[in-house]
Amino acid sequence: MTDFTRHTPETAPAGEQLAQIRKGWGFIPNLHATLAESPTALQGYDTLFGLVGQGTLTPAEQQVAFITASRINECEYCVSGHSVLAGAARLDAASIAALREGTPLPDAKLDALARFTAAVVEQRGRLSEAQVEAFLAAGYSRAQVLEVVLAVATKTISNYVNHLTKTPLDAFMAKTAWTAPSRRAA
């Protein structure tokens, strides 16, 4: 098995980037420490993540998209981490639980966002006109259609990196650890 180093600012080719991440987060998440092996990969992920935050989806809506994409991609690291971030974004516990299990959310608009995000991931963006119209009818905009794609792209990077490198959970994720359905029976 190939081992990937979890870098520090002192060991990383992207040392200054990691120092900035530590300054912003208060620590260096294991995902970022792993991505630091490639300064361009770390910058790409960090830039996309930041751009999602600049869009028109609320912080709670961003977390709905992030958790949905991560659940479908079975990324245990990202579902666990974004469950914490969703709580910080004031998403209620029932909605977080529904997102983690792929069941309907109590809020109809957020449920439409989760269903739309799931369709984007599962259908690789090849949605029907009716699916797009249903998302718009739920109160979202055409710009938000594209912002969901941006959120999915962001999570695709982190989900795939976590699968490839077997990124361990960070300490703050202990209470929200999640096991992918395909691994539950094992």
Automatic annotation (TrEMBL):
<dbReference type="InterPro" id="IPR003779">
    <property type="entry name" value="CMD-like"/>
</dbReference>
<dbReference type="InterPro" id="IPR004675">
    <property type="entry name" value="AhpD_core"/>
</dbReference>
<dbReference type="InterPro" id="IPR029032">
    <property type="entry name" value="AhpD-like"/>
</dbReference>
<dbReference type="Pfam" id="PF02627">
    <property type="entry name" value="CMD"/>
</dbReference>
<feature type="domain" description="Carboxymuconolactone decarboxylase-like">
    <location>
        <begin position="47"/>
        <end position="99"/>
    </location>
</feature>
<protein>
    <submittedName>
        <fullName>Carboxymuconolactone decarboxylase family protein</fullName>
    </submittedName>
</protein>
